[in-house]
DNA polymerase III subunit delta' (Apilactobacillus nanyangensis), 336 residues
Amino acid sequence: MTENQVIAETEKKQKPLMNQFLQVVNNHELSHSYLFNGEEGVGKLSLALFITMRMFCKNVSDDSMPCGHCDECRRIAEQQHPDVVIIKPEGLSIKVDQIRYLKSEFSKSGLEGNQKFFIVCDAEKMTTGAANSLLKFIEEPVANIVSFLLTTNKNLILPTIISRTQVVDLNPLNTKMFNEELTNLGVIPSQFKIIKRLTNQMSTVQEWQEDEWLTKVISAISQWFSMLVQRDNTSFVLVQSNIMPLVSDNSKRQVIIDMLLSIFEDVLDAKYTGSKDYNFPKQAQNIEQLSQSINEAKLIQIMEVILNCNNQMAVNVSFQNILEATTLKIMKILNS
């Protein structure tokens, strides 16, 4: 990010907290350690960088904002400032050697001043050794050193670390901003609702966008559902031919189950609320057709069958067998 992008993103996504921290800095009340907790994409890193820019900026404006133009602001935004160290996971975790490096940097004087800032991204991904190493350090805070721990799930952070930081819960993005983030990732509007139903993690959405995976899954499940509505007894064949080639890991299996449930939630909405804001808008005709021909008891029974897939996955039943059996059970309910 550029320095102006840091300021703009923070103001757009977390303006109340931005103003609150400006007041804290003006009152010289900045604590030694903060834990920023919030969903992915809500601006945790930009807020931490913004506060750091404010502390280093040489041309603070009359309203206490960092100028966004000086060399200090630029280097911090570009994550190139020698006295602002940022730690991110190496692979799937933050390892103890990374925290040891962090501690060694903490022990040095600031290269260009008397203050140092440290930002630990995805702090919940610290290994046990890394978390304990960090804990030993923050138990004895050093003057003129401020650290920001950023996490999407504070429940995965050691309670002893939480007790030694000021926890700041960041508000989730409102619908408009969430949609803007999805648009920036190339998601088409007809997929917005199903994505919100499945995840709030932008990195997950970005992964789904690769090779148009999400579009392919929506298409496969739509075809599966359409055949069920038409009472086509060969619908279970689509499990092997269309759906299974798209299932590469356990996380995607869960997405498939959630999507099967979502399309029948659309049927439920069509039957009882009259809502046309469907998870699968392109299946509106089939959704409404089924809602008119199925009674409540059968619909609930189908949703219970789909929910039971999670229990079967927990005991390592073949996922293909689970989906095929589920399809046959749904067909039996529809034909009864």
